[in-house]
Amino acid sequence: MAAVPDIRRIGLIGYGAAGRSCAALLAAETDCRVMVLTRRPPADGIPERVAFSADLDALIAWKPDAIIEAASADAFAEMVPDCLDSGIDVVPASVGALQSPEMAARIHAICARSGARLIIPAGAVGGLDYIAAAALTGNIAVTYTSRKPPAAWAGELAALDLADTARTEPVTLFEGSAPEAAKLYPRNLNAGLTIALAAGFERTRVRVIADPGVTRNTHEIAITGAAGDAVLRFENRASPDNPKTSAITALSLVATALRRYAPVGT
User: Where does the Aspartate dehydrogenase domain start and stop, copy by copy (predicted)?
Assistant: First the structure.
């Protein structure tokens, strides 16, 4: 008698732009079953093999192999600790939530107790393996520069009365540490904190620029250190539903979650 294949189950927190993309990808490209945690389930257009719940306990009781968090830093703080405490691995989009030392310490303690892992995706950037390896020398400096079209920062530029300026020249909105950047812009600077987790917070500087000269969400990483130097540049198409977010982010979340099923992986 042939063995019955295991049913692959992926949980998903959030059904905004990134969450919808993740659910659609999982439904179209995999044989996974998906349960989405959201307060407002859609009335129609639901992908095949996707179910919805407004109850975190129900999602945990469903026993997914992993949960993708694609909501917000607030949702991360409210829900991810309980998921990890239940022994379920989590792939978070809201990496910026870890800018809080208290939250980071709490997550470390929960994972040590439960055996679950918080698996950080590359998100909108790459080269994290190089950065983490170079950081082992103890001699590394990383500068991450985020350049996005002014439309991605419309609210921030208007608040600073710099909208007109940004139409003709680059405007630097922030320069400082990765935790500071993530705290100021929790929804759109997760990449900076992801890089800092690989390099070390004290070794990472972040610049945020609204640049009329770019048409894509552009990420530049300059690395210098004892192991060598590198310059990486990523020009990502923006999500059609959210100009502040790169379309590759949802792809990265799904790819990271699916990697746990691969017999051989990177």
Answer: 168-254
Handedness of CA 213, 215, 219, 223 (dihedral sign): negative
Over 60: is that where the pLDDT of 4 sits? Answer: no
**Tens digits of residue pLDDT in 181-210:** 888 887 778 999 999 999 999 999 999 999
- Residues of each annotated binding site for NAD(+): 124, 190
pTM reported for the whole predicted model? 0.92
Q: Which residues are catalytic?
A: 219
Class of domain 9-119: alpha beta
Distance, in Å, from the CA atom of 183 to the CA atom of 201, rounded to the nearest integer, reads: 14
> Where are the chain's structural domains?
9-119, 128-237
List the beta bridge partners of residue 219: 146, 234
Q: Which residues carry a binding-site annotation?
A: 124, 190
